[in-house]
């Protein structure tokens, strides 16, 4: 009961802060003098410089609020934390014909790097080449796997201009087709697909993008929520320390 009360307070506080942030942001956006400030803040949050025209019109809209709150709620309610047991959520093959536990992608004793994301997240897509390089560089140390989850910016939600035109997945086949685009960009790296129950997404608090490392059934590295917490450098440093035997 106490845990539920604390969680309810956290949810209320987070939503209240988010509403305040959006209210202030909406006011500033309407003042031309603050345009440069808002763009700079957006670039700082995303860590990549997206074309202003791709997101400006959708900033602080209801669609954006719903999207951001969904991500925040997932993070607050996720099942895992550092050193906890890793959820063995069901996932699906790219063909959609096979369903199996996520941790089946791991090998005994070896770390498994999980990279959660979707085509409509430009940050995720822009870093796929770097992820593949990391996977190839540390292939003797760890396993790597992309988990394709719900779209970060579906065309029928908080959509970005000049982005992948993918609507919110209605079927497993739609999600698998979208995941094939990611698989095409990272040849040789396994890609699995979250089920339409979004079990992996909910368990790992993955939306919009996130890294985790699992070893022997436990979470040994918990990446922060994206976009700000999406830190490939942190994953590389963990793998380097693991490889050299330094303290983690």
Descriptive account of the structure:
The structure is a single chain. This protein has 248 residues and is α/β, with parallel strands linked by helices. Helices cover 44% and strands 13% of the residues. The protein contains nine helices and seven strands. It has a seven-stranded mixed beta sheet. Strand 4 (143-148), helix 7 and strand 5 form a beta-alpha-beta unit. Helix 1 (2-29) packs antiparallel against helix 4. The two termini are 35 Å apart.
In short:
Helices cover 44% and strands 13% of the residues. It has helices spanning 2-29, 35-46, 52-55, 62-77, 122-126, 128-137, 172-185, 199-204, 232-244, and strands spanning 90-92, 99-101, 112-117, 143-148, 191-194, 210-215, 218-222.
| Backbone shape | globular
Task: Estimate the strand proportion.
Answer: 5-15%
**Total DSSP helices:** 9
Structure classification: alpha/beta
Biggest β-sheet description:
7 strands, mixed
User: What's the assembly state of these chains?
Assistant: single chain
Helix-strand sequence: HHHHEEEHHEHEHEEH
Could you give the count of β-strands? 7
Mean pLDDT reading: 93
Instruction: Report how far apart the termini are.
Output: 35 Å
Question: What proportion of the residues is helical, as a percent range?
Answer: 40-55%
Please tell me how large the radius of gyration is.
18 Å
**Poorly predicted ranges:** none
Widest sheet, order of strands: 2-1-5-4-3-6-7
């Amino acid at each position: 009961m106490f845990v539920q009360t604390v969680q309810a307070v956290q949810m209320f506080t987070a939503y209240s802060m988010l509403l305040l942030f959006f209210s202030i942001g909406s006011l500033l956006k309407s003042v031309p003098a603050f345009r440069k400030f808002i763009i700079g803040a957006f670039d700082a949050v995303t860590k990549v410089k997206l074309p202003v025209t791709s997101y400006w019109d959708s900033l602080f809209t209801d669609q954006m609020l719903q999207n951001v709150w969904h991500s925040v709620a997932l993070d607050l309610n996720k099942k895992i934390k550092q050193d906890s047991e890793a959820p063995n959520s069901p996932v699906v093959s790219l063909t959609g014909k096979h369903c199996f536990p996520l941790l089946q992608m791991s090998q005994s004793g070896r770390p498994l790097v999980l990279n959660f994301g979707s085509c409509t997240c430009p940050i995720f897509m822009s870093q796929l080449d770097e992820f593949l390089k990391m996977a190839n560089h540390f292939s003797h140390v760890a396993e790597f796997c992309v988990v394709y989850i719900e779209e970060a910016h579906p065309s029928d939600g908080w959509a970005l201009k000049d982005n992948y035109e993918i609507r919110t997945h209605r079927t497993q086949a739609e999600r698998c087709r979208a995941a094939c685009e990611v698989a095409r960009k990272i040849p040789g790296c396994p890609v699995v697909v979250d089920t339409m129950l979004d079990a992996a997404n909910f368990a790992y608090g993955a939306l919009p993008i996130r890294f985790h490392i699992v070893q022997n059934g436990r979470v040994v590295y918990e990446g922060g929520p994206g976009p700000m917490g999406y830190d490939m450098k942190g994953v590389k440093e963990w793998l380097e320390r693991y490889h050299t035997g330094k303290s983690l």
